[in-house]
Amino acid sequence: MPEGHTIHRLARDHVRDLAREPLQVSSPQGRAVETARALDGRSFAKIDAYGKHLLYRFEDDLTLHVHLGLFGRFRRQHTPPEEPKGEKRLRMIGERWTVDLSGAVACTLIDPEEEAALLSRLGPDPLRRDADTERFVAALRKRRIPIGAAIMDQKVVAGIGNVFRAEALHVNGIDPRLPARELGDERAMVLWGTMAKMLADGVRERRIVTIRGADDKPVSAGRATKGEGPRARADRVRHRTVHVYRREHCHDCDAPVVRSTMASRTVYECPVCQPEGSAGPSPTPSLAEGEAAGRLF
Ligand SMILES: [Zn+2]
């Protein structure tokens, strides 16, 4: 599932490509015909992203809600577009660009009440300027579940998925099994700052890069070698850009990375950098100075 940085990136890209021009909106696959009819010929001025949700603000107070889920994706092409192939739920044709949406779990108009209900189920989003950090800290204080499960709960913090979970806990030296309420307010704020910084880097870099170089900028994934296949490429990128996620050995100390299941997904941790019961800081800190988080929106 795309994590929050992908959603905020899409919001920026779609505003750049499609905003403030009347759009031809259709549902080639036929499952969003009513929605498409209501939006056809209208323009949107802005898009609000909350965690993994996108809200397109169309004229006449119409709001299109999109949630990609596991399989949803957008594809972009120049206008005029090719004939739609496959299951295209929604097509938006602008003057220069056409965007197709397929496989999403939500693609409907929502009214203000439904939107309020949706947002009430979401925790603060570290990429939003209006994020209420205190809500995150308070939510952790109340939870006995492991911190690694708590930050995957979109009611606690919106936009964190499996990669950011592994990486944000790692750089702060936090044991994923530590009960959330034992983290403490101060460490919770540091973790929040790390997540905000990692997400913001993700929006800028268009990928998750949690390792920073001496210049404090996200490192590059390096160049492909000749004849590099997709698997080798994924290994190279991971080796360069993340600390523990899907790695065999920890980037910081080279200890074998331990895998287990938590909140239905594999959690990756280094038992040396994240000792049992640890709330951090990491014995090999690299990105733990997350308090100086750069926020984007
Ligand atoms: Zn380590």
TrEMBL record:
Sequence ranges assigned to domain FPG-type in this UniProt record: 243-275
Provenance organism: freshwater metagenome
Gene3D superfamilies: 1.10.8.50, MutM-like, N-terminal (3.20.190.10)
InterPro entries: FPG_cat, FPG_N, H2TH_FPG, Ribosomal_uS13-like_H2TH, Znf_DNA_glyclase/AP_lyase
The protein's enzyme class: lyase
Keywords: DNA damage, DNA repair, DNA-binding, Glycosidase, Hydrolase, Lyase, Metal-binding, Multifunctional enzyme, Zinc, Zinc-finger
Family that this chain belongs to: Belongs to the FPG family.
Ranges where the record places region Disordered: 274-297
One Gene Ontology MF term: damaged DNA binding
Name of this protein: DNA-(apurinic or apyrimidinic site) lyase
